[in-house]
Write a structure and sequence with these properties.
CATH architecture of one domain in chain A: Sandwich
Number of strands of chain B: 10
Number of strands of chain A: 8
Largest interface: A-B, 17 and 14 residues
Order of helices and strands of chain B: HEEEEEEHEEEE
Strand content of chain A: 15-25%
Radius of gyration of chain B: 28 Å
Distance between the termini of chain B: 71 Å
Oligomer: heterodimer
Strand order of the largest sheet of chain A: 1-8-3-6
Helix content of chain B: 10-25%
Strand content of chain B: 35-45%
Structural class of chain B: mainly beta
Largest sheet of chain A: 4 strands, antiparallel
Number of helices of chain B: 2
Order of helices and strands of chain A: HEEHEEEEEEHH
CATH class of one domain in chain A: Mainly Beta
Number of helices of chain A: 4
Shape of chain B: globular
Number of domains of chain B: 1
CATH topology of chain B: Immunoglobulin-like
CATH class of chain B: Mainly Beta
Radius of gyration of chain A: 56 Å
Shape of chain A: elongated
Distance between the termini of chain A: 129 Å
């Protein structure tokens, strides 16, 4: 049981051991930030790698002043967001002679570079500062970006980004190097106009078809209702008539016996109508005329 | 049975009374005042009869650093040379002058007054180390051969003595 526990503990510590062994933070120092003057911008002082924390400041300078003058010297860095100072160290030289150099090393608890704004040596009172040196010491964690190495915690296997290919269709009419005659240009313009007109017509036709379809649907619905109502009405009338007719049939009495033809034709011969003859003749003559015209 | 037991007890008591142990007590006192040579000095030879550490004369001023971790507990006493440690045989006297001053401090607010408060007796300068931190002291040393005679050729060396004296 004890062996199992020890083995478990060993396995548990193994990843952290490997991590610290492979991707360890490294340390360094900057150059003299005050080399070019008593104020400086941190991006110009700090090296490029991300995950950089400042863990110390070393500075030295020599004040030039009269002993009786009041003088304070602040070595400082503003906060990057402009609210106060992320680091500020003050020496009060009031009542002291100048010419004595001050050298200071100040430890700082790993403040990320993002917090550091512009740095400066500020003199408050009467006097000046000479031979100033300000050096920052820093720590860099390479695994600040987990993608730095597969050994970093949180590393994700990168998925290759497929390049987006933009295909531009070549339009000869827009090519300034293609020389078209005025007629060709006019022809192209006419073609374009025709195409646009055709597109417009097609659109209108489609719209019209939609309108008709909608109207047809509407009317169909209306007709169906009206037809139904009409059918109902007709059915009611038929029913009423059938009742009336039925009643008549029930009440009518057909007398029996023989029913003879009462109408008699007086003329013995029925001659052809002369008017019809003339009309037929005229039709025949007209027909023959029409036939003969095709041979002229 | 009772007799035997009594003897054993008596013997035991005898044994206890005869045993003596010396218990050692040891301890280490960490120095609260550490002196370190920051820059060794070099004599320049601006003329035949002068050796000097002045930079203008080709010399290098020696610098010594005192690191104090207990405030107001020590004096720094620095003595510039009054004789050569090594030199050729000299037949005449050598006149020695020297001085020591504060060149750098790690806490200007509390140490910048060291220079003004220093006391000098002979070739020795004493500073009152009232604050914790580091103080750098620079010394100058000038040796002039007697009667403006030329120093004999050879190697010359001298020593600045820096002492931390408890108050």
């Amino acid at each position: 049981m004890l062996k199992r526990l020890l083995l478990g503990a060993l396995v548990g510590f193994l990843p952290s051991y490997c991590y610290s062994d492979n991707i360890a933070p490294y340390y360094g120092t900057t150059g003299n930030a005050a080399q070019s003057g008593l104020s400086w911008s941190m991006p110009n002082v700090l090296p490029a790698p991300p995950g950089l924390d400042i863990n110390g400041v070393f500075y030295r300078y020599t004040p030039k002043k009269n002993t009786e003058d009041d003088m304070k010297v602040h070595v400082q860095n503003e906060r990057a967001n402009g609210t106060g100072y992320v680091f500020r160290d003050t020496e009060d030289w009031s009542g002291h002679p100048g010419g004595i150099e001050v050298r200071k090393v100040i430890g700082i608890a790993d403040i990320p570079r993002a917090a550091w704004g512009d740095g400066s040596i500020e003199v408050e009172g009467t006097g000046t500062v000479e031979d100033a040196t300000v050096i920052y010491s820093y720590k860099v964690d390479p695994c600040y970006d987990p993608q730095f190495s597969p050994s970093c915690p949180g590393y994700k296997t990168p998925v290759p980004v497929l390049p987006e290919v933009k295909v531009e269709l070549y339009d000869a009419t827009q090519d300034e190097y293609v020389n078209l005659s005025s007629e060709e240009k006019v022809s192209i313009e006419e073609n374009e106009e025709r195409l646009s007109e055709k597109e417009e017509e097609e659109k209108e036709a489609a719209e019209e078809a939609k309108r008709k379809y909608r109207l047809q649907k509407l009317m169909s619905a209306t007709d169906t209702a009206a037809l139904f109502a009409e059918n109902q009405r007709i059915k009611q009338m038929n029913d009423a008539m059938n009742i009336a007719v039925g009643n008549q049939y029930l009440t009518a009495t057909i007398p029996g016996g023989q029913y003879k033809e009462t109408t008699k034709l007086v003329d013995a011969k029925l001659p052809d109508s002369r008017a019809g003859l003339r009309n037929g003749l005229a039709q025949q003559i007209l027909h023959e005329k029409m036939i003969s015209q095709q041979y002229k | 049975m009772l007799k035997k037991a009594s003897i054993i007890v008596a013997m035991s008591l005898f044994t206890f009374t005869a045993q003596a142990v010396d218990v050692p007590i040891s301890g280490t006192v960490q120095s609260r005042c550490v002196i370190t040579t920051d820059t060794p000095g070099t004599y320049g030879n601006p003329n035949a009869y002068t050796l000097t550490t002045a930079a203008a004369d080709g010399g290098v001023q020696p610098i010594v650093r005192y690191d104090v971790t207990l405030a107001d507990a020590y004096y720094a006493q620095i003595t510039t040379p009054t004789s050569f440690a090594t030199s050729p045989s000299l037949s005449d006297t050598v006149t020695w002058t020297g001085s020591t001053s504060v060149s750098s401090v790690s806490d200007a607010t509390n140490m910048a007054g060291y220079e003004a408060a220093k006391t000098t007796f002979g070739q020795t300068t004493q500073f009152d180390l009232t604050a914790t931190g580091s103080t750098w002291f620079t010394s100058t040393s000038v040796a002039t051969y007697g009667g403006n005679k030329a120093f004999p050729g050879g190697n010359y060396s001298a020593t600045v003595e820096a002492v931390c004296v408890a108050k």
